[in-house]
Design a protein that fits this description.
Number of helices: 27
Helix content: 40-55%
Strand order of the largest sheet: 24-25-26-27-23-28-29-22-30
Number of strands: 30
Shape: globular
Radius of gyration: 31 Å
Distance between the termini: 61 Å
CATH topology of the domain at 585-823: Rossmann fold
Structural class: alpha/beta
CATH superfamily of the domain at 585-823: P-loop containing nucleotide triphosphate hydrolases
Length: 824
């Protein structure tokens, strides 16, 4: 919204009035055309009106005004759509008005402008700011403000004009700036406190081995405005080692805001706690944690309109008071805090949290809020203006597949026919015939593609789509107009969902380049799908991180690092560091099997029996808690059933969570089994983890889980909560069409396509699962890799440095190796 350099704040006229002068309700069904297409259409309307206005009309006039206060200055700037008057021009090109002056502000609308009774106040306020600046700079005694509204479809125009004396416009503007000065006083006072506190801030711990070098690397990267990749093994303290130098860089005016980005709730909590720790050491720093709209919504059903939601009704009338109340009384603005003030002021908690971020030093949020084209914070990235932002991207290995999904898009032919049915009336007619005609044109285009597609077909380039994108553009504008006119349409939700799919497809169509594969297919349900598949997301990610001043990607599993450089920033020359593990090598035992494989061709009872034997010998070598990670739920069930049958298992009787199992072999210790289920919710997940954290068993506990699932990363089981991880298979993703498209694409680009599509993502899952063991200096544990491929050179070269001594074993001697480790 604003930019601060030293003691100077700069803000656009539009941002100023939208912040101070907006009012009314949140309505998700209104203003759907505020995207690139609508902006282009608006620009066309602007040019059309401007060209019709004659010689007195001076279009797109830049205006700027600076207000100096004791401690800082505020610069207001913008571009008036039109200034209407006679002007004299001197030899230096300076223009002076010599007649009455009209400031014209043009707004493109999708509603019927002829029915408007008065100008929208926030629009009028924008024109009044321009009028004040122009009148002040040219010593005018009076000036006229004119609002010109034009319907984008019919091109009908409605104007509202109002005359102001200079005293009137001056009084109005002074009152506006008085309102804004409350906020700017706050922000400059808080910035001064922040900078002073950073100057006195010290690292809150004694540096671990290699940690100081890591902190220095992050600081130098930010200082140089570069990108850094950090391979940071568990225990390095990567959160404090990235946040602390980022804060220090802010103290040297290298940046003005830190985005801490992650995909996991637990890592968001770690970031919050890290800022709390720094505050306890004297840091004055305000942070906000953004929570997804669906999670933080306080209504029984999320319906973002003034009819169904009391928090949406009148939201903009009250939200600024709510924001100032929250930021004046809190430095930690988390979900609980947001909900408290949203309830107090009766405003939408999600929208309020986004606005609060303007007045915070740090933002903790999901990747979506920076990278997702649909969810990204338009407040920061909508105008594609570079900001003084540091991006700290935690668990960065997850961003590759997340970004592929964000930047890909599909349309389904059958959806167009379903939407057409929604518009049908009882008398066999249609509510909106123009809308139906565009639906028919889109359907016809897809039908032509379908006739040429047997199973699936890859298109040569974007031109293969012919006129479909054009038809989709008209369709989206038609839906937007229809919903504006039919706010009570009973099938509104279905139409909105379809609308957003179309808009996303069009947005990705604009992005599609050589890093996309365009294909169509018949899916498993018999639908015909056209897909824009972003195989290499680095271009889109790079565009976004270029809007900040520096980016730090970090994870415990960024191997091989050049693969992640290619997929994220696209720059092989970006900096990279490998943080030293603080844990002693002798604290863990890593073994890899010679005699087991999880290949599809060897998934049979013989292999399952071998795996059962490995698990059994492992949990009997030392009593404790273990996790076993399998390639799939089906594989897990097959092994579990055989394990229970072979080792005298019986249903649980007492002291165990309902639905779990107990093995009671007489010769060895008792073995308890807890199983991950497909579709576990948050409560199920917590109950599962409590078995490891709180329960005490008279034997060993085995958690049977799926590699790449909710328990293979993002959980922190310390000390005796987990003493071993058995990983069955190399983690390869399921063979599917899109993985094969990835393979073929990278092969064609002279890369190792199979590794890019399957091996690297699979090994990352393995490393994440293995990382559940050894979380602190006191931990000891075993890691078992059950697949003979782990002993092949192409896999060994992906081992992290701390896996310096991987022992090859067979099921006959694995117990001996484990006994040696535990006895030592």
């Amino acid at each position: 919204m604003y930019v601060i350099k030293g003691s100077a704040l700069r803000i656009s006229v539009r941002n100023l009035v939208e912040f101070l002068c907006r009012g009314g309700d949140i309505d998700a069904g209104s203003g759907l055309g505020t995207d690139v297409t609508a902006m282009q259409e608006g620009a066309r309307i602007h040019r059309l009106i401007q060209h019709r206005m004659g010689a007195k009309y001076h279009a797109e006039v830049p205006l700027k005004y600076k207000c100096d206060y004791d401690e800082y200055s505020i610069s207001i700037e913008g571009r008036a759509d039109g200034i209407i008057c006679d002007m004299d021009e001197d030899e230096d090109g300076n223009k002076t008005p010599v007649s009455d002056v009209i400031i014209d502000e043009i707004k493109t609308m999708q509603t019927d402008v002829t029915k408007m009774k008065e100008a929208v106040y926030v629009h009028k306020a924008q024109a009044m700011c321009y009028a004040y600046i122009y009148a002040t700079q040219h010593n005018l005694e009076k000036i006229t403000v004119q609002m010109t509204y034009c319907n984008s479809e019919t091109e009908e125009i409605k104007r509202f004009a109002e005359d102001f004396s200079y005293d009137e416009i001056n009084k109005w503007y002074e009152n506006l700036m008085k309102q804004f000065k409350k906020w700017t006083d706050f922000i400059f006072e808080q910035r001064q406190l922040r900078q002073e506190s950073i100057g006195n801030l010290e690292f809150p711990f004694e540096y671990r081995e290699g940690q100081r070098e890591l902190v220095v690397s992050v600081y130098k990267t930010i200082n140089r405005g570069k990108t850094l990749y950090i391979q940071a093994p568990t225990g390095v303290g990567k959160t404090i080692a990235t946040i602390f130098p980022a804060v220090a860089a802010m103290g040297q005016n290298k940046a003005d805001k830190i985005f801490y980005l992650t995909s996991k709730t637990i890592t968001r909590t770690v970031a919050e706690n890290t800022y709390v720790l720094l505050r306890e050491n004297g840091l004055h720093f305000r942070t906000v944690t953004l929570t997804a709209r669906d999670k933080i919504c306080m209504a029984e059903k999320r319906e973002c309109n003034p009819v169904n939601c009391e928090y949406a009704k009148g939201h903009f009338d009250r939200v600024n008071d709510a924001i100032f109340d929250a930021i004046s009384n809190n430095e930690v603005i988390d979900r609980t805090c947001i909900e408290k003030y949203a309830l107090k002021h009766k405003v939408c908690p999600f929208e309020m949290s986004l606005d609060i971020s303007y007045w915070c030093d740090g933002i903790i949020c999901d990747y979506n809020y920076v990278f997702d084209p649909n969810v990204a914070l338009k407040r920061y990235f909508g105008e594609k203006v570079k900001g003084d932002y540091i991006f700290l991207v935690d668990e960065a290995h997850n961003l590759v597949d997340r970004a592929r999904e964000m930047y890909s898009a599909s349309v389904v032919k059958e959806d167009f026919l379903e939407i057409k049915k929604l518009l049908k009336t009882t008398d066999a007619g249609y509510i909106d015939k123009r809308l139906v005609s565009w639906l028919d044109k889109c359907n016809k285009s897809l039908l032509e593609m379908k006739r040429e597609c047997d199973d699936y077909r890859v298109f040569g380039d974007i031109t293969s789509l012919k006129r479909l994108p054009e038809y989709l553009e008209y369709l989206s504008m038609g839906i937007s107009s229809f919903l504006d006119k039919n706010k009570k349409f009973e099938k509104k939700d279905e139409l909105l969902e379809f609308f957003f799919k179309i808009k996303h497809f069009l947005a990705m169509y604009d992005c599609a380049d050589e890093k996309y594969v365009i294909y169509c297919e018949h899916d498993d349900e018999g639908n015909f799908v056209l897909r824009l598949y972003c195989v290499d997301p680095s271009g889109n990610i790079s565009d976004r991180i270029s809007m900040g001043c520096s980016t730090i990607f970090f994870s415990a599993t960024l191997l091989p690092v050049n693969y992640y450089k290619e997929m994220l920033s696209g720059e092989i020359d970006d900096y990279a560091v490998y943080a030293h593990s603080p844990f002693k090598a002798e604290k863990k035992c890593i073994v890899a099997s010679k005699d087991v494989s999880s290949r599809y061709t060897r998934r049979n009872d013989n292999e399952y029996e071998k795996i059962c034997r490995y698990i059994y010998e492992t949990v009997n070598a030392k009593k404790g808690n273990y996790m076993v990670f399998f390639p799939s739920y089906g594989y897990m069930e097959n092994v579990k059933n055989m394990f229970m049958e072979n080792y005298s298992c019986r249903p649980a009787e007492t002291a165990f969570t309902a639905g779990e199992d107990i093995c009671g072999n007489k010769d060895y210790i008792n073995i308890y089994i807890a199983t991950q289920r497909n579709g576990m919710n948050e409560e199920d997940r917590e109950q599962f983890l409590k078995l490891f954290e709180e329960e005490k068993f008279d034997g060993s506990l085995i958690g049977m889980c799926v590699t790449g699932g909710i328990f293979s990363e993002g959980i922190d089981l310390k000390n005796d909560s987990l003493i071993g991880a058995v990983i069955v298979g190399t983690g390869l993703p399921m063979i599917c069409r899109e993985r094969n498209i990835l393979r073929d694409y990278f092969d064609a680009n002279e890369k190792d396509g199979y590794s890019y599509a399957y091996v690297y993502p699979g090994m990352n899952k393995v490393l994440q699962a293995a990382g559940r063991v050894i979380r602190t200096d006191e931990d000891r544990g075993v890691i078992e890799l059950l697949d003979d491929r782990f002993l092949r050179p192409e896999y060994q070269k992906m081992y992290p440095r701390e896996w310096e001594n991987v022992i090859s074993v067979r099921r006959e001697n694995v117990r001996k190796q484990l006994d040696i480790f535990w006895k030592n």
